[in-house]
Fold this sequence. Notes:
Helix content: 40-55%
CATH topology of the largest domain: Arc Repressor Mutant, subunit A
Number of domains: 3
Radius of gyration: 28 Å
Strand order of the largest sheet: 1-3-2
Number of helices: 9
Shape: elongated
Largest sheet: 3 strands, antiparallel
CATH architecture of the largest domain: Orthogonal Bundle
CATH superfamily of the largest domain: Winged helix-like DNA-binding domain superfamily/Winged helix DNA-binding domain
Number of strands: 5
CATH class of the largest domain: Mainly Alpha
Amino acid sequence: MDDPLPILNPTELRVLGALVEKAVTTPDYYPLTLNSLTLACNQLTNRDPVVAYDETTVVRALDGLREKRLASVFTGAESRVAKYKHALTDAVLLTPGEVGLLCVLMLRGPQTLAELRTRTERFQPFESLAEVEEALTALATRTPQSLVVKLPRQPGTKEPRYAHLLGGPVELAASAPTPPLEPATLAVRAENDRLAKLEAETAALRAEVAELRAQLAEFRKQFE
């Protein structure tokens, strides 16, 4: 039985996810230097949200992960600079498929079964959606700690999504996508904004005219 994992903050999750990903996808360049790890965290592809961490931010996250025994410094004889690797699979016994699922969820947020099947191909191909669901169920029912959760299907979506629990309980409001507005709604709101602007400009002009009239009346009094 594995010990419960500590709760990670968003920066630690991004750094851990990047380390796990690169260990599988670019093994020839792993462990990672600080510069390579920072670039991996800030990738524009396969990341949600996209971030722009500096090296100081990454070092702080690494320090947190090392304190939680989820990352370590590699000091091989051939390495002239410090390199970093994850220790997730040392802390928790996971299959390659489960590693891939957690990694994608850490790097890309809540996902559907179909999205997870497509995006974990680099880690461990799943033959079917049923296999993906089986692996997620195993992660959700682990003891003493669930590692993923199935989110309620949100209005306007066809499929439920899954999220990891490495950062603590998932806030459902934050995970719900904002439905796009219909063209008619956008047109009405634009028209309302235009009318509100015209009304404000009209009110300002009326106030200015009233002030000018008052000044003119005061000026005439001087000649009466």
